[in-house]
TrEMBL record:
Signal peptide interval: none
InterPro entries: Metallo-B-lactamas (IPR001279), RibonucZ/Hydroxyglut_hydro (IPR036866)
Provenance organism: uncultured Chloroflexota bacterium
A Pfam match: Lactamase_B_2
Protein name: Metallo-beta-lactamase domain-containing protein
Length: 289
């Protein structure tokens, strides 16, 4: 699909994973949630979080991306862009880049243009293979920065997570469609709301908002590096109240941990009063149809 076709065909989303760092269930864990997920299966089984936009843009590049692509019978050979939120191992698995070398990926495929904070990209630079061998180009981005890449206009936002990693999340625009993907963050910083309101002033309205709910039904403080489901729901409400979403915006939660998040159906029931639904592995959406 060409860039021009991508502009007019709507923004297609595929959730490659919706779990937190240990996945769901955690492989060594026998807590109530993990045991129940093994028994129930279905949408309660979650890979580590990642999202594919169209065929060419990945949000995060964690350890389950390759397995997700195989499970979905999907080739990632069209991927050209990667937006990294931060350097935690469930979001950045450097060994994935090894698979992008000519030895393993034939015939010729596009260069991967990888975006993230300086601290995050330093880990990519430190991998044993050179960037040239992996067919990778890096671009450092900062909170509040907006840039163009192919058919997309992207804005980086400051995340409330491990500060030394300079964590980010993103608004991705494609034509008239816009997606917020906010994982691994606590309560949004005031400066983050200011950037979102700047985008609103530029005419941007979100057609989909995806916000993490890692801590589930546990109590968490706003300054925590993760949200619980209630705070996730409140952030979705604030997006609506501040006029940042279109009518019919798809409101989703992601990045669920068994250490607090109940199984899929119970999570759905908790989020329903907020007008939010839990995403699940393999969920496909198209914005702008």
């Amino acid at each position: 699909m060409t860039a021009e076709q991508t502009q007019t065909a709507g923004m297609r989303l595929l959730f490659l994973g919706t779990g937190a760092s240990q996945g769901y269930p955690a492989v060594f864990c026998r807590c109530e949630n993990c045991e129940a997920a093994r028994e129930r299966g279905g949408r309660s089984i979650r890979r580590r979080s990642a999202l594919l936009v169209n065929d060419d843009l990945l949000l995060d590049f964690g350890p389950d991306v390759m397995a997700a692509a195989r499970d979905e019978r999907l080739s990632l050979h069209r991927a050209q862009y990667v937006l990294l939120t931060h350097a935690d191992s469930d979001h950045l698995h450097r060994e994935n880049f090894d698979q992008h070398r000519p030895r393993w990926a034939q015939p010729e495929i596009p260069t991967l243009h990888v975006h993230g904070s300086a601290a995050t990209l330093e880990l990519v630079r430190g991998y044993p293979w050179s960037l040239e061998e992996m067919r990778v180009e890096l671009r450092v981005v900062a909170p509040g920065q907006t840039w163009e890449m192919g058919p997309y206009r992207v804005t980086a936002l400051r995340a409330r997570h491990t500060e030394g990693q300079q964590p980010l999340f993103y608004v991705v625009q494609q034509g008239q469609q816009a997606l917020l993907y906010a994982t691994d963050t606590g309560a949004f910083f005031p400066e983050t709301w200011e950037v979102l309101e700047r985008l609103r002033g530029e005419g941007v309205r979100l057609g989909a908002a995806v916000i993490e709910g890692t801590s589930g039904t546990r109590d968490t403080k706003p300054e925590s590096g993760h949200m619980n489901l209630a705070r996730c729901g409140e952030h979705h409400r604030m997006l609506r109240e501040r006029g940042l979403t279109v009518a019919g915006c798809v409101h989703l939660a992601t990045h669920f941990s068994p250490n607090g998040s109940p199984l899929h159906e119970e999570t759905a029931a908790f989020l329903e009063p907020y007008g939010v639904a839990p995403a699940y592995d393999g969920l496909r959406l198209t914005l702008g149809n």
